[in-house]
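User: Quick sanity check before I run a bigger batch. Here is a single chain. Can you write out its predicted 3D structure?
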Amino acid sequence: MKGCPVTMNNNEKNVNIPDSIGEGRKRFIGNSFMLYLMTFARYVFPLITFPYITRVLEVDAYAAITYMTAVITYIRVFFTFGFDYSSTREIAKNRHDKNIVQHIFCATIQSRIYLALFGIGVFACCIPFVQIMRDNLAVTLLYFGCVFLEVFLPDFFFKGMEKMRAITFRYIISKGISTALTFVFVKGPEDAFWVPLLYIIGTFVAVVTVWSDIFFRYKIRFVFVKLKDIFKTIRSSVVFFVSSAAGTIFGATNTFILGVLNMPNADIANWGVAFNLINMANMLFTPIYNSIYPHMVVKKDMKLIKTVLAVMMPLIISVAILVIIFAEPFIGIISGEGYGGAVPIFRILVLVLVTAFPANLIGFPVFGAIGKEKYVTFSTLISAAFHVVSLSLLFVTGIFSVYTMAIARVCTEVVMLACRIIYLVKNKNELR
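Assistant: Done. Predicted structure follows.
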């Protein structure tokens, strides 16, 4: 890959000396810890405000928040376009060459900008046809602003460099500020617009501090790259995007469908409570996948994968059993009154956690690291097709509901895990 048109002293370009396995694992452990702190800011802070928001916004306003969260998930998948894997991989391979790293950084950010604008434009055209978006126009537009600012949070850069410390602490501070202000400004359903607005403020603070670190610590300068380089960056990430986009079909699509079908706000809110709690729990595992991935790219350390599975799976299964048993008081404590319908949905969706962790761990962290991304994409596409067919059959047969949709969601995750295990067995010799 050609570097950016920047001047550079010979001393600035370091020789890429491979680390030992031990040094790589130390970096992996430190990076995992920082990624967990980042996840705490991104997902646990919203969990702190979750019980408060569900109570003060009440069902109708919370349904709007739930729905727009699903919409921006679509846009987020579109503008990230798999760069968290493709660009992370390239930066991890070339982290000692500033020219190449700068080129990857600039090309990726500019690609994200174009893709985000396109995605926002597409969903803006949906406003006249989706009632919940029309009825909550201010919230809708503010959420579009939220997702556009996220374009400028270059997680892929720090993941590839395996240097998450600086971005993590700055991001935690910004999220802490927006979380605290939620309790100050959100007092009732009429204040629903403050939820995305405070998210915008927190994200803006994070963007400013993170980019300052990139400019002053890493000496990376933002320069415009050629259009052909943007196309090349997007093209190199297509396989990752297809997998991510297909995964969204059995994630945010469920919520989106509820709005398109003009389902009652109570159903959307109950689904939102159950789905968001499961999603937050599932995202707690994201730092493991993200920190293992660059480590696997460099070291191909399959023993680490086996160790993580041996440690995590008994823990996940035990917690899932306890949560299913005590789902009713748990939902009552977390969300308050008016969300009793979320309990059976939540009990069903808990099973997603049991299958999602091993499926994701043997996804890009394993197959992506050995250049077999196609197996991750194939398994995800098969699962997405299964989910679409399942939802269609539920609708045609007249038994579509939030509960049957939850069952279809679990079955889809089982299909994806089964496909990846089959691919894993077929490629066991290469993995050795």
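The chain has a mean pLDDT of 82.

User: Great, the batch can go ahead then.
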